[in-house]
Amino acid sequence: MKKYFAESELIINQDRSIFHLHLKPEQLADRVILVGDPGRVALVASHFDKKECEVSNREFTTITGVYRGKRITVLSTGIGCDNIDIVVNELDALANIDFRTREECKLLRQLTLVRIGTCGGLQPDTPVGTFIASEKSIGFDGLLNFYAGRNDVCDLAFEEAFTRHMNWNQQLCAPYVIDADAELLDCIASIDMVRGVTIACGGFFGPQGRELRIPLADSQQNEKIESFEYNGYRITNFEMESSALAGLARLMGHKAMTCCMVIANRLAKGANTNYKNSINGLIERVLERI
Ligand code: R1P
Ligand code: URA
What we know:
By secondary structure, this protein is an alpha/beta fold. It has helices spanning 38-45, 81-96, 150-153, 156-166, 182-188, 221-227, 242-252, 279-289, and strands at 31-35, 50-57, 60-67, 70-76, 97-98, 103-104, 112-121, 131-139, 176-179, 194-200, 229-230, 233-239, 255-265, 270-271. The longest helix is centred in the N-terminal third of the chain and has 16 residues, at 81-96. Residues 31-274 form the Nucleoside phosphorylase domain.
């Protein structure tokens, strides 16, 4: 029996676009670039040879166009894993649910999702300006724990080693460890990118060990993270979306990965706020390789 998705579960606007993204199924390309900042969408699309459509609602701005013969959709997610839950579920619905019948499509479409973001570097060899491709992501955000099948797609041995090393506080949600799509990673992450393990946090300050006026629950968190090693892996960077993206994509059968430019190095205590031009180098690489 085919699953039917009721009006409250799959919200479709009157113009047949999906609730938050305001996109229609035919406006979505198979190759999708996700960026946090809505302003980064125009920068990516400035490389397109042809623009097909531009749609905007809330923090979600989308342009679909063609880059050297490849049809690509670029879309902003805003900040945080909560938005990734919305974006990836709505992209999957656009690709794999028939909006007229509200049933799953007979032939499923696989999307290729690449996030281009900014991040904080955690190691001496990840200075400001480094491009880091997330081979694995550790979700501090808890999102994947709400979905069935989480244990089938996560690296449970890595989770066990990490929670033991961190002396994990049971008041926090369980961290989950998820791999990027291996084939996609090989396409995108050439020698000009460091492959690493990324922690995706549910916040920019406390969850990433930034202490302003309020003391942190664990003042040693970042030192423990920086010294963690498991099977040759060490943790390279903090951002806020890669784990939710890799995890949901894996459960849905899409290919996904994240690459970010380091704009702050937490060890050297330096930051670059003038990064908007230099991230163009990362965008050009992804457009060539996707
Ligand atoms: C925080 O400043 C934001 O920057 C990073 C984080 O993941 C978070 O979204 O990525 P973006 O530059 O893609 O937004
Ligand atoms: N984005 C983050 O989430 N953290 C940083 O330190 C920099 C960018």
